[in-house]
Amino acid sequence: xxxxxxxxxxxxxxxxxxxxxxxxxxxxxxxxxxxxxxxxxxxxxxxxxxxxxxxxxxxxxxxxxxxxxxxxxxxxxxxxxxxxxxxxxxxxxxxxxxxxxxxxxxxxxxxxxxxxxxxxxxxxxxxxxxxxxxxxxxxxxxxxxxxxxxxxxxxxxx
Length: 158
Fold this sequence. Notes:
The protein contains one helix and eight strands; from the N terminus they run αββββββββ. By secondary structure, it is mainly beta.
């Protein structure tokens, strides 16, 4: 009983302190695809048995809007990949998704260690224009050399 009261009080405090928290939607899963369409400014260096590759990229990415529609936005970003001598891999990237005059930032990371893939991507900031108030996090995986699939759980706040 005390635990329920504590959670109820915590929820009320959160709703009072965070504007729009009470009106945010429940997370909505959005399965999408990413297609890299170009790379530039590629740099490769080797250090301590690791190969580092970094580049700027452009691409297309599916996103689900608050009204339930799926649209395709454009991406620009920067990626850094580290591959160790034993084949382990790590990836970090920052990107900006643009759609309909609005933008939403994302940050992601992934690793491949002993054959096990782990990834995480999340939105950064609140977005602008038709992407304002969107927040998301999820995972991604490669489906080809320049294509990926993802599932991002979005929350839409007014």
